[in-house]
Specification:
about 475 residues; alpha/beta; 8-stranded parallel β-barrel; binds 1-deoxynojirimycin
């Protein structure tokens, strides 16, 4: 058997990407509601107003997950649904929604994994500076405490933040994510306050829940290789890793602000936003390190006078890679997904082994992995063979890492459903289940049946072709 029965084979979504019902049940706007209403920010002017309407259809979606025999559902809580003013009293209707979702999951034997922050900051907090304001970190801790109190008995694993790299650098440096700002200092403040939010949030969860309920932090650690062995290319790739990975691992895992980060971002001279004692507060090693992995990249030192093409400039022309204007990324080679991301399962293997070597024994879960491809519904089926290949390759990488000693205990396929892919709107389709946005009809793709067979056999070798024959 590749994966034991205890190994969690789950699936994931996030509140703003699937829930819809943005103005129902007492929910107030988040920064993504605002972003979607800002012309030119989201492809096609798409919004999360309706999305997959999971707010109304969650019982059907849980039934679907039960049919697909997934072990766990990783969803996120919309902060402005449960605390409409972001600080202060909870909204019982909002909390009741998540309680009902968790109870429905449990009634079908599916574990509930709740992320507290998957990018939809209440707009009222952004109006006070958002993640550039340290008060946001304290508000987050209060929110975490309130959720643990309200939902502690029905959530099996908590996650503080999802991909703070995106919230900080895409939100405040490149501006392709909400709140759409392009200010390097603001981005570094956001990085720090998100680390602080994790630390304070994890403490708050533990205060209410004790040590028995696991707490996770999900990072999208970047696997960036140098374009050559030349020292300047090696240093260029290192700079990307420092800004992308060490900026979070340093404070949270090791309790330090890396000197390299300050050197790379030397244009920022005022670090007074890091106050005495903050790093101790950030330093909260999670029980489970969540890893979101999709692809790899290769970086080199930009030539003199060359305009660095740092990945992810997007519409704004600004780079998320603060302090890395002298780094350029190589064009992607080989097959890519809809996002233009390369497909390299070995990158996941290497990443898991690297984390294992650095933090021996640390429990890890792949909290997201998957791929967007152009799918087509033909006769009620979606033959998404490329997605099956992608999943097979990446789960194979996980299997190898486990065999080589990495303590990986779960994998969550991104995503259960096609959904709102942020600034790309509905144009990207990551679901193992196709969604018709006119009718809200769900159609499991072949990859969903493949994943179900894996859940049954637990064996990548013998999962075979049974899934192809599903009527
Ligand atoms: C990571 C994010 O957490 C998720 O929201 C997003 O849809 C996927 N990556 C795919 O881009």
């Amino acid at each position: 058997m590749t994966f034991s029965k205890q190994f969690v084979l789950g699936t994931a979504t996030a509140s703003y990407q699937v829930e819809g019902a943005v103005a129902e049940g007492g929910r107030t706007p988040s920064i993504w509601d605002t972003m979607c209403r800002t012309p030119g920010k989201v492809l096609g002017g798409d919004t999360g107003d309706v999305a997959c309407d999971q707010y109304h259809l969650f019982r059907d979606d849980v039934a679907l997950m039960a049919d697909l025999e997934v072990d766990a559902y990783r969803f996120s809580i919309s902060w402005s649904r449960v605390i409409p003013d972001a600080v202060g009293p909870i909204n019982p209707e909002g909390v009741a929604y998540y309680r009902a979702l968790c109870e429905e999951l449990h009634s079908r034997g599916i574990k509930a994994v709740a992320t507290l922050y998957h990018w939809d900051l209440p707009q009222v907090l952004e109006d006070r500076g958002g993640w550039t304001n340290r008060e946001t970190a304290f508000a987050f801790a209060d929110y975490a405490r309130a959720m643990a109190t309200e939902l502690g008995d029905v959530v099996d694993m908590w996650s503080t933040l999802n991909e703070p790299w995106c919230s900080s650098y895409l939100g405040y440096a490149s501006g392709v994510h909400a709140p759409g700002r392009t200010d390097d200092l603001a981005a570094l403040q956001a990085v720090h306050h998100l680390n602080l939010a994790h630390g304070l949030g994890q403490r708050a969860l533990r205060e209410v829940l004790g040590k028995d309920v696991p707490v996770c932090l999900t990072l999208n650690l970047h696997v960036v290789d140098p374009a050559s062995d030349a020292p300047e290319d090696v240093a260029a790739a290192r700079r990307i890793r420092v800004v992308g990975n060490e900026a979070f691992l340093g404070p949270v895992m090791d309790g330090v602000l890396p000197d390299e980060l300050r050197e790379i971002t030397r244009d920022i001279t005022d670090w007074s936003f890091v106050q005495d004692g903050d790093l101790e507060l950030c330093h909260q090693v999670p029980d489970v390190l969540g890893i979101n992995y999709y692809s790899t990249s290769r970086a080199r030192q930009a030539d003199a006078g060359e305009l660095a093409s740092s990945g992810g400039h997007g519409e704004t022309g600004a780079s998320p890679w603060v302090g890395c204007d002298d780094v350029t990324f190589l064009p992607v080679e080989g097959p890519t997904t809809q996002m233009g991301w390369n497909i390299e399962p070995d990158g996941l293997y290497r990443l898991l082994m690297e984390v294992e070597q650095r933090y021996p024994g640390l429990e890890m879960m792949i909290t997201e992995n998957g791929a967007g491809f152009d799918d087509e519904v033909v006769g009620g089926r979606v033959h998404d063979i490329r997605r099956v290949d992608y999943l097979r390759g990446h789960l194979g990488a996980v299997e190898r890492a486990v065999a080589d000693g990495a303590n990986v205990t779960g994998y969550f396929l991104w995503s259960l459903l096609d959904n709102f892919e942020w600034s790309w709107g509905y144009s990207k389709t990551f679901g193992m289940v196709h969604v018709d946005y006119e009718t809200q009809q769900r159609t499991p793709k072949d990859s969903a049946y493949w994943y179900r067979d894996l859940s049954r056999t637990r064996d990548l070798e013998t999962v075979g072709d049974a899934w192809v024959a599903v009527p």
